[in-house]
Amino acid sequence: MSAPESKENSARWPFGLGTIDEVPARFPKSPSDATAQHVKTIARRLTASEPMRQTLQSYVANQIGRANDAADAPPAAIRQFLDEHIAAIDELRTISVGPPPRWAIDIHRRSQETSPDIAAQSWQFRVLAADAFDHHRRGDDTTAWQDAETGWMLAQGLWAHPDLSSQFLALSGTRMMNGLAAKLAAPAPAWHQQLLAFDADRAFSAAMQIEAWRAMTSWGRGRTSFAERDDQVWKNFGGAILRNISGRQASRYATLLRAAAEDIARQHSCDPSPKKFDPVADVIRSHLARFHIEREAAAKLQALKEQRRRAGEWPDTLPGVGKSLCGENAWRYRRGADGSMSLSFGDPTAEDAPAVLPLSFRYPK
Known about the structure:
Blueprint: H1 3-10, H2 23-26, H3 34-45, H4 50-64, H5 76-84, H6 86-93, H7 111-114, H8 118-137, H9 141-159, H10 164-182, H11 190-197, H12 200-227, H13 232-265, H14 279-311, E1 331-335, E2 341-345, E3 360-363
Antiparallel strand pairs: 1-2, 2-3
């Protein structure tokens, strides 16, 4: 092992993640549990054509993207799909009464071989959101909250799976459920506080650490090919040279990912799109930055709605309403003379990041 490799293997990562050498002990091989298998079975009953997927995806995005809680009636095709799959959606909701699904983990194999079905899980998130908005539109926020909780349970199962593909989908699903929760009536159920408090930064950093571990160990597996050659020159000379080159490349990549995780750990900037590291790491940082702001929006909207529920009107102000990770007065709240209210995020650079929930809201009296 070269000096750079040895140094990187023993370097400590942020969030208490330890070193790359400790990764296998933290993620032992484990099978999928019964809940995960149940989710897979339900997914097969929720299949849809590509046009239906695009229509439903657009419907959900448009509802979350509104500046208030109003929701449109779903198009006829979506209405028919939801009606035809009532039993499957009802069955999917039952997972929210138990622990999240636990998917198979084997970090020694390629992620595609052990990751959950990304397409199926993504579709389940959207179906739940569409069903929730349909119930919300008809005044049934109780069922809408149950749909959102089910989506959060699915996301938790993905957050516990260490592959980056699972983490990206977990973040996508969590942002969708948070955006949905922002539009529902107060009081928010206790599980939404779990979503608001979840440490997505640590989860992504752990996935990046595993990516670094795979890079370091995969170079090691590649080196065995030189030992298997009959050519003694390659064994003694070519293998030694390329071993050093590949090891240094892997070490540099691991160092880059660790630096990105360290930056995430201390990130308090409102700039959602800095370009500092590997392209994948930069995308992660950009999405996480926007996610943190969207969570703030959902939390503030729910707090304001709770005040209106108790007092019958929007409050004149709310303690901490302007506070953000980005600064003390990053959010702007105003109650209008007509009894309406507006809430907006003051930093325009946040709009450059990929959006799920908008950052400017206006509600009637």
